[in-house]
Structures are given as structure tokens and as C-alpha cells.
Amino acid sequence: MHHPLLKVTHIYREPRNTGVSIEGIFQTVRKDLEGKVSVTDFYCDPSLSRIGNTKKVSRSAGDINHITGDVNFLAIGLRGQKNILTVHDLGYYENPVHSRLKHLLYHTFWFRIPLMYVDIVTVVSEFTKEKLMRYFHYPEERIRVIPDPVKPVFRAAPRPALRERPVVLMLGTGKHKNLDGLINAARDGAMHLDIVGWPAPDEVAKLKEYNIPHTISNGLTEEQVWKHYANCDILFIASHYEGFGMPIIEAQAVGRPVVTSNKGAMLEIGKDSALLVDPDSPEQIRDAINALAGDNALYEATVAKGSINAARYDHRIISEQYLALYKELYNR
């Protein structure tokens, strides 16, 4: 007897040209689950208000509704349904620049109320899970840690011999990403910085003032990002804050060693497979990069450990975890 497929609605923020990370992750999951569940995509309509989108989403409900991130409030329009919410990080919530009123509104309408209407929250790291429990007292038994997957585009690439002046890749340029720390580590000119993003004017000025060899590019496709991984010697992601730290496992999947922070989600994702540094110490950053560049055995060992680590985040493994979760919730 043929059973109809479980109907899952993936719910996204409005379509956008930049920041395709959330969309890219779940489009990969959707592709992996073809023939196992029937997935429909719902995108927020930028011409409607939040209330308008909340009304609209109720008409698109499936057997399971999965809010993929960044539009938590839509859970209000799905009350009474079986709902999953993915929380990627709490960086915006924790940002001290917001006024107390803005913080309270965000706490209430972005988290407190929507969380009342979801059955399960998925988070991408234990780091984010702990924060969700601490700030919102969300019950642990209703949280699942399902990490972000490595997309198939980030395939292994053979590496030419280590360059005299290593190319250090950095992806993303918000102040929390710590380009300042990398610039201070690179002041002796012994490395070339390949920066993907939009550095702040003060950062660009410093790169020039210190005469640091560098390239800056932005607005890249994923295939172009893969080329930057393939062309680099080392990935730098010693940020002050990451909810997950996707570039860690992308670089490891491509076959490049990683220098990352000794705290938060980056420690969790990279602890046994990357070089860990204090993000506030340019000396530690410089020493880690120099150690990799100057010691072929250390370089190769770090790449090998990274490859093993990245395999745990293979997109097929992650997609199966979502499938199991959809079935679990449906059968309740």
C-alpha cells in the first residue's frame, strides 16, 4: 500500500541576494530528502507587514512546519500546528548596543511569544542551546542540536606547495569577525590576506598604513567562495562571536587548516581539529599562522584532522537528522 509523503513546509525570510546561508542550508536538505518527504517553500512577502505575513503563512501550513530562521514571529500564525523553529545564534539578542526597550521588544516578540507556539527548537550548536535555556528557560527536552551541513560545493581541492608568504583567507567582515586582530597579526608583512566581505573604512586604512599585502572581494557565488578556499593556505576565523562558525568546516572539507577562537561555538566545532587562539591576542594569531606556514608536518596533520571533523557535517548526515525529527514530531 502506497503511503502519501509527509508534507513539510520550509518557511523562509523574504528572498534576498546576500546572506544566502540559511536558504542554502535548507535547499540542500530539501534536495537530500526528495522522495522521502514532500517539501513546500514559503517565503515572506516583502510587500506585506509582519502581521500580513503571519496571516499568510497560516494558509501554507503542512503536516510539519519548519521555520528555518530569522522569522521567528511567524510561529504565531501557525498556532495549533506541529512546528519546528531553527535558531542559528543569539548574537543580535546579546548585542549591547540595543536600548533596553528594543531589547525587551526583541525578547518578547522574537523569542518569548513565538517559542510558545513551537514544539521543538533546533539549534546549530550546544553553545546556542545553552543560551536559549539560560535566557528563555526553554525546556532542554524540546531542543535538538542539529549542526549546519557542509554543502556539496565545498569539495576537497588539492593544494600546491606551501607558499613563502601564506595566503590567509577571511570570510565576513562585521566587527565581531575580528579583522582588526588579523591586521595586527599581519603587520610584519609575512602573510597575504584574502578578505571576502566589506571591510570598514578604518580597517582598509590600516591595511594600507601597515603595507599589508591583501585582496578584497565581495558578492561572490558559492563556487567563487570555494575557489578562494582552494587558493588559500590557511583559513582565519578567530571571531569574537559565532553561533556556529560555518567556514571552519567548509575550509576543512576543502582541505585547508583553520585558525579559530578558543571560545564559544568555534571551540565546540574546531576543538580537536583546528589551531585555537585567544581572539584578543594578535601575537597568538600570528604565532598560529606562522606555525602552520613553517611546519609542513603540523600543516598536514591539521588538514587530516580537519578532514575527519568535516565528514561529521556531511549534508546527507544532517538531512537524515532533520528527516528523523520530522517523523518524530508527526508521530506524536
Give me the secondary-structure topology.
Layout: E1 6-12, H1 21-32, E2 37-43, H2 50-58, E3 64-67, E4 83-87, H3 91-94, H4 100-115, E5 120-123, H5 126-136, E6 143-145, E7 167-171, H6 179-185, E8 192-196, H7 201-209, E9 214-217, H8 222-231, E10 234-237, H9 246-254, E11 258-261, H10 264-270, E12 275-277, H11 282-294, H12 296-311, H13 315-330
Parallel strand pairs: 1-2, 1-3, 3-4, 4-5, 5-6, 7-8, 7-10, 8-9, 10-11, 11-12
Tell me about this structure.
The protein contains 13 helices and twelve strands. The chain has helices at residues 21-32, 50-58, 91-94, 100-115, 126-136, 179-185, 201-209, 222-231, 246-254, 264-270, 282-294, 296-311, 315-330; strands at residues 6-12, 37-43, 64-67, 83-87, 120-123, 143-145, 167-171, 192-196, 214-217, 234-237, 258-261, 275-277. It has a six-stranded parallel beta sheet. The protein has a six-stranded parallel beta sheet with strand order 9-8-7-10-11-12, sandwiched between helices. By secondary structure, it is of the alpha/beta class. Helix 1 (21-32) links the parallel strand 1 and strand 2.
Based on the model shown, name its key terms.
332 residues, alpha/beta, Rossmann fold, 6-stranded parallel β-sheet, 12 strands, 42% helix
